[in-house]
Design goal:
heterotrimer; A mainly alpha (302); B mainly alpha (414); C alpha/beta (268); A: 302 residues; two-stranded antiparallel sheet; 11 helices; 2 strands; 73% helix; B: 414 residues; mainly alpha; 2 domains; binds adenosine-5'-triphosphate; binds magnesium ion
């Protein structure tokens, strides 16, 4: 057994998993409140990456470089992702709030296809090289084999983001309103929670998290195109289900488990079948434990 | 006036929203930034117009709903053209015969000599019509959202390709085998996953389709990898040699027959005990099982039957193209078939046929449209759900004749 | 209403308990129903009446307790944990408190679904339009139509069920349940949302069903006038526990029941 190789894979898995977790949070939060799989969430992530790419491109050509570009690009990307998430909810989901269950899901699929093709037509269907914005840190030299500088940034940013999210949900007004709405939307409305606002806020927060993930992964893999949102979204959804959909710590756990499982499968069996492991895991979980790792099974009221 | 102001705001908002993606294009090769400001103006104008129209439509929709809700008595709904057609047996028969005649002589209408491009286009379109009708069973009638339907199509196509390549089996032997393979996959996959809630089912089927594609792409010793399999024989015709055009015409009639068969089968199923159970399941699962319908069996039958049809037409697809590779079986194809069902009206056979033909033929003949077609499909799916969830052609109600109405009192207990 | 002499037992529930997480929605409730009886299950909101129905009809699997049925002419069975469709096939059919019709199907088709478990047309039969399919289809339509006449909905048979008025939808649910040929009909608040005239007609309908179709009926209802006028026996639940049972007269005078209902009566 080659422990060094295993450790390398584990590190890679954790990095990948934390990205999945970021996107999965958006799925889980939205699902928790309106029981909708926001199929277009992966597209918001892709748009985040694209906006970051464009801003970074402009800035690089005007002479800026390094982390300033990354931070500026990320900020603009977050703003835009939030705007897209907000608009998406308003147009594609809000009019369907009381429709049969399948309707918003189909609408979401339509929105996803629309956004993917919109970016493809407005930009390009080809892969674009994402500029390298994180220079190698010197102090990382000894462990660079396991964790690159980009990976370190990813881990730090995701951790901070998740702590911030926890604080937001636990202690702020909007966070409390979100939890109340999740428990019982009718009741929350009766006690004066503006449910529409809460739903919008949920979409905005989820989109911001997805955009963070988008920027991070783009600077890690070094390339983007208009189709990256599809797979990433699917994987992240898998992570959310794995952890128990609607459950926030579950999404993080699910992301990590999925990331690690995938890298281990790719490392030890075959990298071509990486996605097969992810979906295999999803199917297994859904069949054996449909409520997910941390979710509770609830009986539908009749 | 308020509308105008709002629309103006929305126009501005969309100009902001599309600013980076529509206006800026970074060319990484020669390090240039291209600014396309004209796009922004267009977006503003279009968003303004659409927003205006949108508010108007939403208002109308709300008003109509309120009207329906306020009216306690069953209102006589305005009958659609299609409904009126269906209610008139003479007229509907005439239309049906007319359509059949046109379909029969179609190859002779559009092609002369060696020009058979239009026939090939029509064959492709009809293949998708059959797919749409098959998915209509699963999604439209039974309400099982299957996002990986194309995988069963691939199963059928590869079944024929492999059987003919490795075992020299002919088209007619493989046709039912392809269907059965599709069904087998449907059953094997459906058995564990059909217990899942509707939205989970959608994702798992999507995952299944992705897995299928990955396996096809990577297991090249069996499936030929990304390059696919070439040299698949066309349907044989009693051992006679056919020239190019004749082959196309022949295939056309085969698909046409399949379309007709599919229509007959789905119509019969729809108006039977089985089809009613599917629809009831779609409407309300809990009420459905409480009325004595076996959910697992009913779902599985709908799922497997849909898969059967995809497998069947997959064989024809392989034969028609002579060549298949995994690129013909992407999520976008699944999405397009779904768009047919949604657009045509869940469960409506006529609607699915019209939508299928439109969705396949429009991009073919309107090249300008082809580029934007997925964009349009996506938007249409959203808009349909909001404004016309019942589809272009409403799933029409069936009226049952009942002349044997006895008195109330001889209805003794069994 | 004269109570018929007690015949055979049809449903026998004992010690039925249902927990939702930490909440005990039903706490060891027992209930018996005899042939030809109309039995009412009453209690304040949230007492666990609907949950009781759900446990008996297989929608929920009870945490503990026994549910036995004794279908006429068949052997007795324990039905805990059985699937709802099996239980319906064995002869118990129900309606729902919050109406669950199939909105995009016609009124007639809604009732025809009830015949599903009594017919056997397979996919192949349907595709080939076999003799069996044709015969069963005709029988289904006839029987369903008769049931619609019985509940007074025959003239709207071709309407979509979502277009019916509230009261009509409730009657349609009854017809749909009866289409499954049950020996015991469970009605969850059939009069909820009906006006006094409709309630009166419902009263008459239920009694007619009992006498014409020889069905036993278990009914949850808040309308005390209806309950007192048609039930042979009444069970009373409060906070998941059974607090009383007896004839309408006994229940009316039971101090515990009066206490449990005081709040509601005072409001009414
Ligand atoms: N699926 C469920 N999950 C959790 N709790 C439930 C569920 N179904 C019912 N309950 C709870 O069980 C209790 C009993 O509910 P139930 O619906 O049986 O009352 P009920 O007697 O029918 O009231 P009502 O007269 O208002 O219909 C309630 O506290 C309810 O919240
Ligand atoms: Mg109740």
């Amino acid at each position: 057994m080659d422990f060094q190789y295993l450790f390398e894979l584990l590190c890679g898995g954790v990095v990948k998993g934390s990205i999945y977790a970021l996107i999965a949070l958006g799925y889980t939060m939205v699902y928790g409140i309106i029981q909708l799989i926001n199929f277009a969430h992966g597209e918001v992530y892709m748009i985040g990456a694209f906006v970051a790419f464009i801003v970074a491109g402009i800035l690089t050509l005007t002479g800026y470089s390094g982390l300033t570009v990354l931070v500026l690009a990320a900020v603009v990307a977050l703003i835009y992702a939030a705007a897209y998430g907000y608009t998406l909810e308003k147009i594609a989901y809000r009019p369907l709030r009381n429709a049969p269950r399948l309707s918003p899901l189909i609408s979401a699929i339509g929105a996803s296809i629309f956004l993917m093709n919109y970016v493809q037509l407005a930009q390009t269907p080809d892969f674009l090289p994402f500029p390298e914005l994180v220079a190698d840190f010197e102090f990382m030299e000894p462990i660079a084999r396991y964790v690159s500088s980009v990976d370190l940034v990813i881990l730090i940013v995701t951790t901070v983001t998740m702590i911030a999210l926890t604080v937001l949900i636990k202690y702020t007004r909007i966070g409390k309103a979100m939890r109340a709405t999740q428990q019982d939307m009718v009741m929350a409305r009766l006690v004066g929670v503006n449910v529409d606002r809460v739903i919008s806020a949920t979409f905005i927060i989820g989109s911001v998290l997805a955009a963070i993930a988008g920027v991070l992964i783009a600077s890690r893999t070094g390339q983007i195109n208009s189709a990256i949102g599809f797979m990433a979204g699917l994987k992240a959804f898998t992570a959310a289900v794995l952890g128990g959909i609607g459950n926030i710590p579950g999404a993080v756990l699910g992301g990590l488990v999925l990331g690690i499982a995938e890298t281990l499968g790719a490392g030890y069996i075959s990298s071509a079948y990486e996605d097969v492991f992810a979906f295999g895991l999803l199917v297994l979980i859904l069949i054996l434990r449909p409520a997910g790792l941390l979710g509770k099974a609830v009986k539908q009221k009749v | 006036m308020a509308h105008l102001k709002r629309s103006f705001g929305i126009g501005l908002w969309f100009m902001f929203l599309t600013l980076p993606l529509m206006v800026v294009r970074v060319n990484t090769l020669n390090h240039e930034v291209e600014w396309r400001w004209s796009n922004m103006i267009w977006v503003g104008i279009c968003a303004f117009a659409i927003a205006w129209f949108w508010q108007f439509s939403i208002e109308r929709r709300t008003a109509r709903r309120a009207h329906v809700a306020a009216d306690a008595h069953p209102e006589v709904e305005k009958l659609s053209l299609a409904q009126r057609l269906a209610d008139d047996p003479v007229l509907s028969r005439r239309v049906l015969i007319g359509a059949a005649v046109v379909a029969m002589i179609f190859p002779w209408l559009v092609s002369t000599g060696q020009n058979y491009y239009h026939i090939n286009v029509m064959v492709s379109a009809l293949i998708f019509v059959v797919l749409g009708l098959g998915l209509n069973i699963t999604v439209g009638l039974a309400g099982l959202l299957d996002l990986g339907y194309i995988a069963f199509f691939a199963v059928g196509a590869y079944t024929y390709a492999l059987l003919s390549k490795n075992f020299d089996l002919g088209f007619w032997t493989c046709l039912p085998l392809g269907g059965l393979m599709g069904m087998l996959f449907g059953v094997v996959l459906g058995f564990p996953i059909l217990r899942l809630r509707g939205d989970y089912l959608a994702i798992v089927t999507l995952g299944f389709a992705s897995i299928t594609k990955i396996v096809l792409e990577n297991w090249d010793t069996v499936f030929g990898g990304a390059a696919g399999i070439a040299g698949i024989p066309r349907p044989e015709f009693f051992g006679m040699a056919l020239d190019g055009r004749q082959k196309s015409v022949y295939t056309y009639y085969i698909v046409l027959a399949l379309v007709a068969l599919t229509i007959v089968v789905t119509t019969r199923l729809k108006n039977s005990r089985v089809g009613r159970a599917w629809m009831a399941l779609r409407e309300d699962e809990i009420a459905c099982v409480a009325m004595g319908v076996d959910m697992a069996r009913t779902k599985l039958s709908a799922y497997a039957l849909g898969a059967f049809w995809a497998g069947l037409v997959g064989v024809i697809f392989a034969a028609h193209n002579n060549f298949i590779n995994p690129d013909s079986f992407t999520f976008m194809d699944s999405a397009m078939i779904l768009a047919m069902v949604v657009l045509g009206g869940m469960g409506s056979i006529l609607g699915v046929i019209i939508a299928g033909l439109a969705l396949k033929l429009l991009p073919e003949y309107l090249r300008a449209f082809a580029e934007y077609r997925m964009l349009v499909f996506g938007a249409v799916m959203v808009l349909m759900m909001i404004f016309r969830p019942q589809g272009l052609i409403n799933n029409m109600r069936r009226k049952y004749e009942c002349d044997t109405v006895e008195g109330d009192h001889d209805d003794g207990a069994k | 209403m004269t109570a018929p002499s007690k015949g055979r037992k049809l449903l026998e529930v004992s010690g039925l308990t249902m927990d939702f997480g930490g909440l005990r929605a039903i706490d060891s409730v027992g209930l018996d129903i005899f042939e030809g009886e109309i039995v009412a299950l009453i209690g304040p909101n949230g007492a666990g009446k609907t949950t009781f129905f759900n446990c008996v009809t297989g929608i929920y699997e009870p945490t503990a307790g026994e549910v036995m049925i004794h279908p006429p002419g068949e052997k007795s069975r324990r039905i805990n944990g059985m699937k709802p469709n099996r239980i319906t096939t064995l002869g118990m059919a129900r309606t729902f408190q919050n109406i669950r019709l199939f909105p995009a199907m016609t009124v007639l088709e809604n009732v025809m679904i009830g015949r599903h478990c009594r017919t056997g047309t397979s996919i192949l039969d349907a595709i080939l339009n076999s003799r069996r399919a044709v015969r069963e289809e005709r029988e289904t339509v006839e029987k369903s139509y008769r049931l619609l006449k019985k509940v007074g909905l025959a003239d709207v048979a071709d309407e979509f069920s979502r277009n019916l008025s509230y009261g009509a939808q409730r009657r349609l649910e009854i017809a749909r349940a009866m289409a499954t040929d049950p020996f015991l009909l469970l009605l969850d608040e059939p009069a909820a949302g009906m006006n006094p005239q409709e309630t009166l007609e419902l009263d008459e309908l239920i009694v007619r069903i009992r006498s014409e179709d020889k069905l036993a009926i278990l009914l949850i209802e808040h309308d005390m006038k209806l309950v007192m006028s048609i039930s042979d026996r009444i069970y009373v639940m409060e906070y998941g526990k059974e607090i009383a049972q007896g004839t309408p007269r006994e229940i009316k005078e039971n101090p515990r029941v009066i206490e449990a209902y005081l709040g509601e009566e005072a409001h009414a």
